[in-house]
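INPUT
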Amino acid sequence: MSTSLNLRWQGRPTRAEPGPVLDCLQPLVRRYELSVGPRRVRTATYLDTVDWRLRRRGLVLSHEGDSLVLNGSSPARSEKVPAEITWPARVEQLAPGPLRDGVAEAMWIRAVAPKVCSRTVSSEVAVLNEDGKTVARVEWTEAACLEPARTDPVVRVTVHPLRGYTRDADRVARALLRTDGFEPAESSVYEGLLRATGLDDAETRPGITADMPADVAVATALLGFADAIRDNLDGTIADIDTEFLHDLRVAVRRTRSLLKICGDQLPSRLAERYAPRFKWVGDLTTPTRDLDVYLLELDELARSLTVGEPGDLDPFGEHLREELARERRTLVRGLRSKRFTALLDGWRTALHKVIETGKSPITAEQLAGERIRQVAKRVDRKARAITPDSPAADVHALRKRCKELRYVLEVFKPLCPPETYRAVLKDLKRLQDVLGSFQDGEVQSDKLRVYAQDMLDGKRPRAATLLGMGELLARFVRQQQEARHELTGALEKFLGAKTHARIRELLP
Amino acid sequence: MKTVASYNIKGGVGKTTAAVNLAYASALTGRRTLLWDLDPQGAATYLFRVKPRVKGGSQKLIGGKRPIEAALKATDFENLDLLPADFTYRNMDLDLARDGAKKAVRTLSKLLGELSGEYDVVFLDTPPSLSLVSENVLHAADVLVVPIIPTVLAQRTFDQLVDFLGDFDGRRPEVHGFFSMADRRKSLHRKLLSTLPTERSDVSATAIPALSVIEQMAVERAPLAVYAPQSPAARAYDALWAEVAELLG
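OUTPUT
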């Protein structure tokens, strides 16, 4: 046994009195001495990103007293927390050091926030050999959730092996498991707490099935997007991290695309009424997102300057942050407005009604076949019309059609053969990457010109700043040119017989 | 990964107590620390209550026949592991020489390289001698902590060591001498304690006092800071660790 073994205690909680462990280890007392350590009581706040990025990588981050503790990495890390820290926090707000390095990749640009807060009572039994050397540790832990809801204690007894003494830990584990009191636990204390509070349940959005009426299928997908908008709303308003707004915008874009492609399946002109409202939400969120993207990339852009110094762009960064603060105020006002609340509530109510009463004569499978074929045809037509000299507007139009195809494919994914679906998506993604690079180059260079003019009209920046921005502009234009160069090859591949055959195979 | 060797040509000068207490101090700061007890007498191994045995002995370990990881033992302290002593280490010189004269002085350095991802600091507790094992240690070390008893002969031995290192090609360890077993009741000790650090930049003013609390380590079988954290000797080791940590960067 080289890793810790979690056991479940079958009896009642003991407030971490390890009596049952001592009883079960009695057969080993001729070989070992048992030493009981003091009881420890602590409050632990477990942290993760909203999309469980740490948990998915097996990392457990907790705030205990004035320390931040990371388990699941090798070795476990514990560091003092900066006194000024508040949760949620992004990685740059954690103190530099091995613990931050241990979570940085998993956290990415997302903030960690409290998931559960528990009161934990624990005690340790050290198992000592004839030299008085500790050869295994048995930890009794009882953790009761305090927030978001109070729960009964989760009891775990963990046998910790020590390097070079794994046989001793094996003996201890076997002795405990030989009795009726202990059985292997499938989950750790943390997982037990998540289960006790219901937080571990996978999100169970109703899925689309092949024989579902088409209107119910469309409403089901749209309701999923509406949930995503709702779930990301508070984080966007509180500016916990930039991904909340990004995810909200993706859900809005998916909603608008599906309304355009399959909105005719919804009753009583629902799509016509709501399409402009969601366009308003899209427009409301665009300026903040554009500025977020710029600011996320600014450090890397500054480092890429070949003539200027990275610091030359500091006034530009300051300008962007001022703009962002202003745009965010507009965004938050919009998202808190009655107009937005009414939109989301009304939309969800209407969708629920469709799901309850839908009676479309065609099935989801039939609709999927028809609409994927239709959108794929549109993409094909647009793609074939693109030449190296096509105006940028045509390339953008193709990009939009590709996005529509991607979204409609994602909606009907449950009805597609998985392998073919993955292959089609891979082909499409390759093309979308090139189109995205082309679009980003253009949008960012256009925006940069506007920002430069705004700065000149305002505080009049230093020449070095404008020169640095000029270098960035050249980079964006070059990026766009390179993307256009790559586009010919990407289109040839996408328009080839293989992709077409895969799309045909995908259709019912 | 940085390597700190506790070394002196002379025996009984406080190498092992320095290695044990400095390694413990390093682990306390959160650094993943390993102590390799290279002395076949196994005093450091004894102090951590570990049995002085390495499966396959020196020959297999040095010859690379058994992975170094397989010999590691956890101590009772977080972040601190031990590579125990083994009586066969008395033949380590021969085992090192088997590798061919050219590479023989870098074998330990190469073996330690296998652990570079696992530890932040490795301490080497060395046997007293000037042998092939010692040469390996001197080549592997980033910092050499050298206990000096405040006597003229001990100072002379320290000079010999520094001269010997001066002949090294390429990378040389940073030498950090410190006074060990210092007894301020003796006038010669007092004199050297006050003059040597001012005359030499590679000798620290930190002095580990000759106190029975240090000898108690063999009774307690634990680092000094575990059972006498407030003692002057424990504080002196803390000060010494602060200096070493600074040298490690």
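end of record. Strands of chain B lie at 2-6, 33-37, 73-74, 80-83, 121-125, 143-148, 174-182, 203-209.
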